[in-house]
Amino acid sequence: MMRGTRATCILAVALVVCGAVSHTLAAGKIKGSAGGLERSAAAFSRDGRLVGWTITGPSGLYEFSGLEPGLYMLDVSGSLAPYLEVVDGQTTVVDKADQPKLALEMELWGPARVTFAQSFVARGTAVTGFSLWRPAGDSKLLVSLYEDSPAGKRIAGPFETKESMTWICGSPLPAEQFKTSPGKKYAIELAAADGKPWHHGMPRTGDVYPDGIAYYDAVPHPESDLGIDINEATPGLIQVAEADDDQHFIKEGPGSGTCRVAGQTFVATTPNILKAGANCGWGGAGVQEFVFSIHEDGPDGKQVGSACTVKMVTNWGADAIWFPDAVQVTPGKTYYLQYRRADGEPFFSYLSSDVYKQGRAYRDGQLVPEQFDQLFSVIGEEEPDGIIYPVNVRVSRVTDTSAVIAWETGTPGDSLVHYGTTVHLIEQAGNEQEQSKQHEVTIEGLAPGTAYMYRVSSHTYKKSSRRTYSRIYSFMTPPGGEDRPRFDKPPIIVEPPACGDCVAVVNPGFEEGVTGWTRRASSGRAKTPETYVPDAKPFGDATTGVEGCEPHSGKQLYGWTYRGPEDPSWVEPREDWKQEVICQRIAVEPGREYVFSAFLLTGDRGSGWGRDSRIRMAVDENDGQALANFDTIDQANCTQWFATHHRWLPVSLRFTPKKSHVTVGIHFLNWWALETNRLYVDEITVRPAK
Predict the structure, then answer these.
(1) Inter-residue contact 187 to 220 (CB < 8 Å)
(2) Measured at the alpha carbon of residue 274, what is the angle toward residues 271 and 275, in degrees to the nearest 5?
(3) What is the C-alpha separation between 106 and 634, in angstroms, rounded?
(4) Pair (590, 681) in one structural domain
(5) Which of 365, 449, 465, 521 could cysteine-pair with 580, CB 3.0–4.6 Å?
């Protein structure tokens, strides 16, 4: 039980040592990444011997060689890999993995609406709170939870936040009301309590929640997710007993003095004990060996399972770790955690105030005054062998459209691969029904010549267990078709894909300049009239592209690049707020659902934000004038703003026309004049939804 925030190298000295370090030479090896500088890694044999231990250098890598074939338990920077198999003549790779957290980058926003919702697949047993960025609006929020979508059954809420939500904000939610089932789909809805439209922060590239979408006023927007961090109560190891109100060193009076044996009774709530910790001192610096053990009833009770020897740094404590089947206990029965120095010398057992009412603290077999507990913790599993950890993660048989991902686990679990071309990893493949220790998943439908990132995960589905993920790895598919160097040859022009069912859009790829498109532009804002130009000359044009911004298909694209150093009046930073809309009125069938699609590309240089050049799409479903004025575009069916980091991003917007015509448009915003701003669109299509 480590206390404080001392450097990791100090903490690592307090790693558990269950037995002596083995000096037997053999052919097996365990290696991997512990996740960074001064991270700990320790390997334990099945009989409790510590067979490998290290603190990593700048590379974060570790390696334990000369291991006998058999099962091991690895503690890599705090993560436990149980029943790790080492085979003679082979290397087992175990990498530390931080469990996934959404990279929301909440620096853009969607259109102003009264309610927003986000669907998601639950990982835990309850929603306990949320956090978001609210760039506009200041009111309390009404929070509700629905099955599947906002159109589904309401199972919690509306719950009104205690405070007004504005800017970077969040609120806890009552877990007893917002209950969920892991693996099931839900939607969390947030409505302005004052009934006024507001803006919700959005991720730069839109789609980051796997199997989830955003809703604006209950209208689904599959192209986007909200920039909301949904906090969940997730299953995991059970805190059997704990007293953590640290009284530390007590010099005199009740609780003072040294002992040769310390302990604490507790009531078991799980069928096994995996970890137990305490904190001690001995009047000097350095490291001492301590022996931890679990006993029945009290200080004189029968020992349960094996003892565990640990290295403890004075004043910083240590944790004893046992294999899942090593210390088996009976829930509801009283047990005694005992610890002593291996050399038999006296020490200070640090105390907590009496916060654990089910047990008592002991020193040298005598009760400590009732106002104290030992400073201790005991952890177990609600159902043994629930913990799982992916190892030996690897990719093989990579073709231009597929790849095979394989890994192993020490306990049986399911097999999922999460992959994509960005760290969001929104695609998923695998099998959640079958469980195995050997896992292999084929992912198909990949793009040739493309770099992919992936991580694997497995779940035992036992009580108090959770899905455990690997770190992120990568591979690249080979090119498809003829792979020929370009050198000084002209670029290969990709023809626009065939679109037999597309609605007629005049000049959708800007091959004929701006024919068929209406353009409107403005510069500055009305609040600064000295720089405001409400009817500016359009900034964009149809072009063959510049500096690597090649058309997505065909020979031309639409947009512009601004270069600050080439502008005699440029000063940095300068808020330009240049806006432009290009739009076109098209014929459609009223009441039929359509998909408006385009490829968007933006990029900044000279900005740490990476979102000062942005684009969104809009459709006026009522065949009105919503796109005729920048102040009324939010009244149309709009996507969020997108910032694509110099890459083409496909975006689609679903809409249902009310009349026989609609107006589709692309809205550009060049917020700040930077060293470079670029905003482009290409390959616009409108087709009936399938």
Answers:
(1) no
(2) 130
(3) 19
(4) yes
(5) 521
Q: How far apart are CA 251 and CA 317, in angstroms?
A: 19
Name the 3-class secondary structure at 12. Answer: helix
Longest dimension (CA), the chain: 92
Same-domain status, 76 and 132: no
- Model confidence at 5: pLDDT above 50: no
Which of 61, 69, 56, 60 is CA-nearest to residue 26?
69
Does 500 reside within a domain?
A: no
- Nearest Cα to Cα of residue 335 among 394, 258, 276, 407: 276
Report the pLDDT averaged over residues 349-358.
95
What CATH number does residue 257 fall under?
2.60.120
Token code pair at residue 119: 């669907």
Would 460 be classed as within a structural domain? yes
Task: Judge whether 232 lies within some domain.
Answer: no
Cα gap 616→620, rounded to integer Å: 13
- Structure token pair of residue 181: 């089932």
220 burial class (0-12, 13-18, 19+ CB within 10 angstroms)?
middle
The CA distances from residue 114 to 111, 131, 140, 277, in Å, are 10, 18, 12, 50
Contact (Cβ atoms closer than 8 angstroms) between residue 687 and residue 592: no
User: For residue 636, what is the domain's CATH number?
Assistant: 2.60.120.260
Q: In this model, does residue 164 exceed pLDDT 50? A: yes
- What is the model's pLDDT at position 487? 54
What's the average model confidence in pLDDT over 93-101? 83
Q: Which of 93, 120, 142 is the last residue of a domain?
A: 93
Query: What range does the domain containing 450 cover?
Result: 391-476
Total residues found in the chain within this entry: 690
Helix (H, G, I), strand (E, B) or coil at 13: helix
- Residues 467 and 404 both lie in one domain: yes
What is the pLDDT, as a whole number, of residue 681?
Answer: 97
* Within-domain flag for 507: no
The answer to whether residues 662 and 620 touch, using CB atoms and an 8 Å cutoff, is yes
pTM of the model: 0.73
pLDDT tens-place string over residues 360-409 = 999 999 999 999 999 999 999 999 999 999 999 999 999 999 999 999 99
